[in-house]
Amino acid sequence: MADTGAETIAVRRIERAIAATGLVVAGVAEDQWANPTPCAEWDARAVLNHTVGGMRIFAAELNGTDPGAEHESDWLGGDPRGAYAEASETDRAAWNRPGALDATVHISLGALPGPMAALIHFTEVCVHGVDLAVATGQQAVVDEELCGELLAVMHGLGGFDAYRVPGVFGPEVQPAPGAAPHGQLLAYLGRKLA
After folding, report:
1. Which helix or strand (DSSP H or E) is residue 160 part of?
2. Tens-place pLDDT, residues 109-166
3. What sign results for the dihedral spanned by CA atoms 141, 135, 120, 123?
4. Is 138 helix (H, G, I), strand (E, B) or coil?
5. pTM: predicted TM-score of the whole model, two decimal places
6. Which residue from 78, 193, 101, 74 is spatially nearest to 142, judged by alpha carbons?
7. Residue burial 37-75, b: 16+ Cβ < 10 Å; e: rest
8. Which of 17, 15, 9 is nearest to 124 (CA)?
């Protein structure tokens, strides 16, 4: 299949989310890994671990390899920043392989066509990057334009409420008056910021 504009946009959004989350990861202080996050069950380290695990699993699927561990295994070890940087390179390369979006990607949600897998992955990396930014007081480095794009995509999906299940997304909550795009996005996904 020839590369279309929509496919290029999907991959570029993933790359932008990886870069934006990388800025947040780089700014996490050593004493902040246990900070609570908008993901009620996870601290900052657990959010990053989940994100890195997802990056590794998506990349393995796209490359036809074994990720080497389960999604919630310890992917970070003693070097969370290094683990994220390494996963970022692998993930970015996998999504940029010719024909990556032609693949069927098998994850816990089932077998997904490449474009839907790309949207889910973009959502995961972007939203968990924001979760981490909120948890560590780094909202100023959030890519607000990217958050706004993701929110617009979600509003454009018919039947988004089907994803509002425990462990995925909660019921929409009211964002704070004048909330920035990242706050609107988290509220749409059911995360309470205060």
Report:
1. none
2. 788 999 999 999 999 999 999 999 999 999 999 999 999 999 999 998 876 776 676 6
3. negative
4. coil
5. 0.92
6. 193
7. bbbeebbbbbbbbbbbbbbbbbbbbbeeeebeeeeeeeb
8. 17
